[in-house]
Design brief:
By secondary structure, the protein is α+β, with helices and mostly antiparallel strands. The chain is built from 13 helices and 16 strands.
């Protein structure tokens, strides 16, 4: 039994008719001569679910929403609620795949069951298959999501024989080893009604003191929090709060986080569009090394250039930089061992106003370097502290309205950009080789109508772009601008074989 944290619960509270708060991924695979089927995938899931705790737990709501929900083992677990199969219409191109997955991505998960789904998609051109997986953000963050997926993957097409999940010695197994009952965790029993109500009463009584403590902690980072950093005297208040708290660490001052108005911001609809594609990880890494930057810095620079080009096409390029939130994992233990989120975020300007691509690259490097130094000197807890300010019954009722109002009046950021590191070697699922893995994230009124996420895997950097079509009219065009941004930087360095790796780009067009 584990209760959701205020940050975990916030991902539940934000859901509405226009927001589905799950993280997802689209894997494209070579199916190994038909070995990857729904039946083989079901056997694998049931054999390895004990390695991914989030897959076997469901929500237990506290009556009347008086407190945050709990995670507990699902007593009626049935894989039929989670594993689905479909076939693309001919000719099975990437555009058709994107349309099908966009519809799936827009649907909220059923809270009556563990909060995840898998969709095996056949009919993709070239004999390939796709696997779309989504898990609620209340249960996992980007890092734990990647490790949850890794529990199902193998290093070779011939995996070792599956091991039966561990059983509670006081309750010996009564079912065949691959049944749903055998896969269901025997611990994490549902809390009793009395214990939930007692806990809710205690937390309601102590909430004012805890909220005050959260305010004091968050005040030390007031100059790094979207919207709050623009308040008069925010930096002085932050310094004073740190002094009162006895925090003497000097912190680099951040540039202005004023958010410009763009087509990306405002209330979103419930519809989704997505695009996906890959660029050479070697090319991105070489650029990073040549300029003394990190791979993530180059990713941010590519996104900056792509957004500049896309906005210029629509005569919507603001005079100042865009503001992006970059999620950062703060997990200290094994990701598979913990259900829930251990993340914070860096908020940084994207110099879309700069014309020269090299100048933009260096400006991104400087901004990200300062943001990382600032992040390293803090406890990086402001996101959690903000989610702790409202009592659970209030937060559950008002969060969608607050997000909608903020989108209309004061959007705190323009978009979210996330980069999740992955293995640089091939992985296999039920004997089929994973060719690409495109991560897909969440859209909300507050975070904007566009989310860009990438995952480094087996020599490539795989991008997944999710957008609201009412505000982003050409999600595939952004992918083309990413390609052009990388080509531009590579050409600027020279086309010699000692630097470039072929053309350096393999984008999937819709």
């Amino acid at each position: 039994m584990r209760q959701l944290t205020p940050l975990d619960a916030q991902f539940l509270n934000v859901e509405s008719e226009t927001t589905a708060a799950h993280v997802a991924g689209l894997a494209v695979l070579d199916p190994a001569e038909g070995a990857l089927t729904r039946e083989s995938l079901a056997q694998l899931l049931l054999a390895r679910m004990h390695l991914a705790p989030a897959l076997g737990l469901r929500l237990v709501e506290v009556p009347l929403g008086l407190d945050h929900p709990y995670w507990a083992a699902d007593p009626g677990f049935d894989l039929a609620h989670h594993l689905f199969e479909t076939t693309l219409p001919a000719p099975g191109d990437e555009g058709a795949l994107a349309d099908v997955v966009a519809e799936l991505h827009a649907r909220r998960l059923d809270r009556a069951h563990p909060l995840w789904e898998m969709h095996l998609i056949h009919g993709l051109r070239g004999g390939r298959v796709a696997l779309y997986t989504k898990v609620h953000h209340a249960a996992i963050d980007g890092v734990s999501g990647a490790e949850t997926l890794a529990a199902l993957l193998d290093l070779s097409p011939c995996p070792p024989p599956p091991q039966n999940p561990p059983q509670n010695p006081q309750n010996p197994p009564q079912n065949p080893p691959h049944s749903a009952e055998a896969a269901r965790p025997t611990q994490n029993a549902a809390p009793s009604l009395a214990s939930m109500l007692a806990g809710a009463a205690v937390r309601t009584f102590t909430h004012p003191a805890r909220a005050l403590r959260s305010v004091v902690r968050a005040a030390g980072d007031l100059d790094a929090i979207p919207l709050a950093s623009g308040l008069p005297g925010a930096r002085l208040i932050a310094k004073a709060a740190r002094a009162v708290a006895g925090d003497a660490h000097p912190r680099p001052e951040l540039p202005s986080l004023s958010v410009p108005r763009t087509p990306l911001n405002g209330p979103i609809s419930g519809r989704r569009r997505l695009s996906f594609g890959s660029v050479s990880f070697k090319d991105v890494r070489n650029l990073a090394r040549a300029h003394g930057m990190s791979v993530n810095d180059v990713v941010m620079a590519l996104c900056t250039s792509a957004l500049r080009s896309w906005l210029r096409e629509r005569d919507a390029l603001p005079a100042g930089p865009l503001i992006a939130a970059v999620p950062v994992a703060v997990r200290t233990g094994g990701a598979r061992e913990v259900v829930g989120n251990q993340i914070s975020a860096m908020v940084a300007p994207m110099p879309t106003h700069l014309r020269d691509p090299r100048e933009r690259l260096h400006a991104v490097g400087a901004v990200m370097s300062r943001a990382k130094r600032r992040f390293a000197t803090t406890r990086a807890s402001w996101l959690h502290e903000l989610c702790s300010l409202l009592p659970a019954p209030v937060a559950g009722q008002v969060t969608p309205a607050i997000f909608r109002l903020a989108a209309l009046a004061f959007p705190p950021i323009n978009l979210i950009i996330s980069n999740v590191p992955g293995p640089q070697f091939p992985l296999y699922l039920c004997g089929g080789r994973v060719l690409s893995y495109y991560p897909l994230s969440v859209l909300t009124d507050v975070s904007g109508a566009l989310s860009i996420t990438c995952f480094s895997y087996d020599g490539m950097l795989d991008f997944g772009i999710v957008a609201c079509p009412e505000r982003v009219d050409d999600v595939w065009g952004l992918l083309g601008h990413l390609r052009a941004a990388l080509d531009e930087l590579l050409l600027d360095e020279g086309v010699g074989d000692e630097f470039r790796h072929g053309v350096g780009v393999d984008l999937v067009a819709g």
